[in-house]
Amino acid sequence: MDIKKDSQTPFLYENKESNTMVIFVHGILEGPKQFRKFTEVVYNKGFSYSAILLDGHGGSGKKFANSSMKKWINSVEKEILKYKDKYENIILVGHSMGGLLSILLSLKYKNKVKSLILISTPLKVHVRFDMMISSIKIALGKIKDEDTLTKYAYNALSVDRSSLVTYARWIPRYKDLFELIVMVKRELKNIAIPTLIIHTKKDELVSNKSLNLFYKNLKNDYKIINLEKSGHFYYNEDELNKILKVFQRFLEDTIS
């Protein structure tokens, strides 16, 4: 292995003068580190933020295998309950499966969650061949710094490499993911708060057909950004700057 993996731990900032808490929710096998640039925007706006670590993540493959969809939902709900009486506004930002979880919890706490930012949300899944190869490389520890796709996917993950037996025990967790997708598809029409949707045309895991479901079902005030050059884990520098500016404007418009 030629690259060093950064640690994946939750992080928090509270501004005592803020009336808004922004909660960041990562996807399956991922961690909160990916949200660092977004939290800089939140900090500069004077809001509070919390980037959480879902149950079963941030440790061994066995720990992940023993988690569940219910525990992931509880992780997000616990964070909302922690701040719902302390802050006037809560905003949920979810990447991948974190977007699915954010949608469900926004509906449960619709009087408190004021807006949603959904990044690469898998309403339909399509695993590209190059992502399959990258997953194999990660499982085997064959990661090169010049292999951009594999490197960024590897750095987004928070669960340790495991044995083949342990990987087999992950199958129920992927079943949980697909159950979440089914649940969220049924609820899309019920979203009533402002929503920013960020999608990437070259996403290695999320089908472009996911956007069709948003277009078809959403009745609320929403905005869709469809990036040309970025992927599920990797962001082109210019496109990253673009979505950070859109993210900032969305926060300003939501909390005015």
Characterize the structure shown:
By secondary structure, the protein is α/β, with parallel strands linked by helices. Helix content is 43%, strand content 15%. The protein has a single domain (11-254), classed as 3-Layer(aba) Sandwich (Rossmann fold), CATH 3.40.50. The chain has 10 helices and 7 strands. The mean pLDDT is 93.
Structural class: alpha/beta
CATH class: Alpha Beta
Number of helical regions: 10
For CATH, the homologous superfamily is named as: Alpha/Beta hydrolase fold, catalytic domain
Q: Indicate the CATH topology.
A: Rossmann fold
Which architecture per CATH?
Answer: 3-Layer(aba) Sandwich
Domain module count = 1
Rough outline: globular
Q: Low-confidence segments, ≥5 residues, pLDDT <50?
A: none
Mean pLDDT: 93
Main pleated sheet: 7 strands, mixed
Order of H and E elements: EEHEHHEHEHHHHEHEH
Strand count: 7
What percent of residues are in strands?
15-25%
Keywords:
256 residues, alpha/beta, Rossmann fold, seven-stranded mixed sheet, 10 helices, globular
